[in-house]
Amino acid sequence: MGGIKKFELKLSNIDYSVYVIVGDGECNEGIIWESLMSAAHYKLDNFILIVDDNKLQYDGESEKVLNIGSLESKFKSFGFETYSINGHEVSEIYSVLTNFKTDKPKAIIANTIKGKGVSFMEHTSIDSDVEFYKFHSGAPSNDAYLKALQELIILVNNDIENYQLLQCFKI
User: Fold this and answer.
1) pLDDT tens per residue across span 28-72
2) Strands 60-61 and 56-57
3) pTM, to two decimals
4) Which has the closest alpha carbon to 152: 107, 120, 111, 125?
5) Which distant-in-sequence residues (6+ apart) come within 8 Å of 20 by Cβ?
6) Cα–Cα distance between 130 and 132 in angstroms, integer?
7) Closest residue by Cα to residue 136 from 152, 151, 121
8) C-alpha–C-alpha distance, residues 164 and 47, integer Å
9) Which of the chain's termini has less CB crowding within 10 Å, N or C?
10) What is the DSSP string of the chain?
11) How far apart are CA 72 and CA 143, in angstroms?
């Protein structure tokens, strides 16, 4: 999960950061927690875990599939410098990535909405225990893809016009 490579780099005195992005559903897997224990134990201060916490898995809502409780409290208990942010706000992501405060490994819980920004994809089908989130796997139709792309282009252009993206990256 990135920890072994960071451990090798740390021992070699090479200054790199390792970014690992996982979904909240992946946090049901034991190997995730084993890797996090190692990152904390070996003081991998440039290990940065980002969790896409959209509260959905392929087969339903995360807490119904396997409720693992508060990710934030778990990461803190493992010895991580932990943040919980709006994963759709570029300014929040930038702020946390540029203002770490400790020499601990970092965990960023990016609270997100699956399909955000595409009107017909946002949280589709999560109200039913029977129907899966239909855009989780597989590809949208060509028409749906083009419509989604148009909506996302408008969102990005609006962000650029509002300087949100430009200010974060000092462009």
Assistant:
1) 998 999 999 999 998 888 899 999 999 888 777 888 888 888 999
2) antiparallel
3) 0.80
4) 120
5) 1, 2, 47, 48, 49, 50
6) 7
7) 121
8) 27
9) C
10) --HHHHHHHHHTT----EEEEEETGGGGSHHHHHHHHHHHHTT-TTEEEEEEE-SEETTEEHHHHH----HHHHHHHTT-EEEEEETT-HHHHHHHHT---SSS-EEEEEE--TTTT-TTTTTTTTT-SSS--TTSSS---HHHHHHHHHHHHHHHHHHHHTTHHHHHTT-
11) 39
Record the tokens describing residue 29, joined without a space: 């897997």
Question: Which residue type does 27 have?
Answer: C
Sheet holding 47-53, edge to edge: 18-23, 47-53, 106-111, 81-86
C-alpha 72/C-alpha 157 separation (Å) is: 33
Tokens standing for residue 139: 């590809």
Tokens found for residue 89? 């706000």
